[in-house]
Amino acid sequence: MKLNEANRVILVPAQDADLAAFRQNLQDAFAAGFTAAFGTVPEGPIPSDAELGDFFHAPGAVTYHLLLDGVRVGGVVLTIDTVSHRNSLDLFFVSTEHHSRGIGSRAWRAIEEMYPETVAWETHTPYFEKRNIHFYVNKCGFKIVEFYNVHHPDPHPETREGIPGGESFRFEKVFADRSTHSGER
């Protein structure tokens, strides 16, 4: 292994047989964030099993394990639009025992390297997930472009069930120097 490959996070496609364990690890990570914010464990899994199934099997969806030195340390679900190149970071987690090691930042760089034709990325996070907000804005370069709340409802609330009060942020990362034409950069 080359020296610059040490501590490199790589993305490995998840197989259908992996999805049950992937789902449980993701739900555990999301529950830890909920518990940290509210001091209680959520009543049911967040996101629900049905919601995760919708993400896993949506058109254009790709699911990856995050590996560090051959060990699964998290995962990501992306939606890739090969026509518009406006892609979505739907679900992203680093297992709690691997937090604060820079894994998320390295994983995000690997995602951007894997999809260099992307014109814009979009993602969402609940209002109470300060750790996520810091990560997306300060580490990854996203901008907050919308705040969903009672006065400005989320047009797709079914995709973010389980968020107390339904309040969340929508983020975008736009690459102004990339063409929207397929294959051009």
Radius of gyration: 16 Å
Query: Total strand count, please?
Result: 7
Approximately how much helix is present in the residues?
25-40%
What's the N-to-C terminus distance? 31 Å
**Computed structural class:** alpha+beta
Give the helix tally: 4
Query: Kindly state the mean pLDDT as a whole number?
Result: 87
Characterize the largest beta sheet: strand count, sense, and whether it forms a barrel.
7 strands, mixed
Query: What's the order of the H and E elements?
Result: EHHEEEHEHEE
What would you note in describing this structure?
This protein has helices spanning 19-38, 49-56, 103-114, 130-139, and strands at 9-13, 61-68, 71-79, 86-94, 120-126, 143-148, 168-174. It is α+β, with helices and mostly antiparallel strands and 185 residues long. The protein has a seven-stranded mixed sheet, with helices on both faces. β4, α3 (103-114) and β5 (120-126) form a beta-alpha-beta unit. Residues 181-185 have low confidence and may be disordered.
Care to give the gist of this entry?
27% of the residues lie in helices and 28% in strands. With 185 residues, the protein is of the alpha+beta class. Helix 3 links the parallel strand 4 and strand 5.
List keywords for this structure.
single chain; about 180 residues; alpha+beta; 4 helices
